[in-house]
Amino acid sequence: xxxxxxxxxxxxxxxxxxxxxxxxxxxxxxxxxxxxxxxxxxxxxxxxxxxxxxxxxxxxxxxxxxxxxxxxxxxxxxxxxxxxxxxxxxxxxxxxxxxxxxxxxxxxxxxxxxxxxxxxxxxxxxxxxxxxxxxxxxxxxxxxxxxxxxxxxxxxxxxxxxxxxxxxxxxxxxxxxxxxxxxxxxxxxxxxxxxxxxxxxxxxxxxxxxxxxxxxxxxxxxxxxxxxxxxxxxxxxxxxxxxxxxxxxxxxxxxxxxxxxxxxxxxxxxxxxxxxxxxxxxxxxxxxxxxxxxxxxxxxxxxxxxxxxxxxxxxxxxxxxxxxxxxxxxxxxxxxxxxxxxxxxxxxx
Length: 349
Known about the structure:
By secondary structure, this protein is α/β, with parallel strands linked by helices. Helix 6 (about 115-120) links the parallel strand 3 and strand 4. The chain has 13 helices and 13 strands. Helix 4 (about 70-80) packs parallel to helix 10 (about 240-255) and helix 5 runs parallel beside helix 6.
């Protein structure tokens, strides 16, 4: 491949790369607010991060060490023996497609766009349909099925017996069921995790969402040991930084904080849902970490709120907003004021 062709290919890939929430620098450049002046509700990250103790200087000084307590804490927390720490679930999303020959991959749409991007980039034939329309017939035509549960951004949940039926079907022909449970920590009873992971099932768990520490870049892949070994080999050594391992170990073992946080998230989600509904931005689905609002005026709402330094996530197909949780009463009042002004602006368009 010539230099010009290679450069064009890279440019095309960059253009097709998914866009994510939290892009405040771009929002600041567009709307003129200071970077630290935003109320950022564009992600589904817990606005109350885990209050960890600062890692020791030695954790920064030496290379990370496996079996330093992180794996044990994760096994206790997730209830499975078969897991691998990674630099966020994004690392698994990127690497898993490279561990199989190219085949037919079925995904939900809309969903977390990095999945489709990674499988297509690795040469697989990607097919998508709305989560509600994925059925036995569609699964029967796929080599790999990738689902986000609950789905991001629309919060759709799959019945566990149906997921297990699909896993068994895929296992019979050497396929995979990949279940991304990035938002499952608030409702762990709905997880597909097992004490020992069965054939064909790969569950991804994000540390950053529920614990509010996305910057730590910690995630876990849970699957059969042979598949985890291949994934570990692809990831290479020291996949998770030493200080991040220390912080994650603390958070995963803190049962009191976890129980209190699940209760708080449920309460705050309900309060935010009511506030949005009162101002004509009625969520179709509310989860403990985000709200999904289908509306033909999503662009107008996002712009009107952004003018008031409130940043939300907009989707085009289907046309909708995703809005996260406010952290406290002051942010709640700020959102209410922004919604009051924005609703007048949207009604005038």
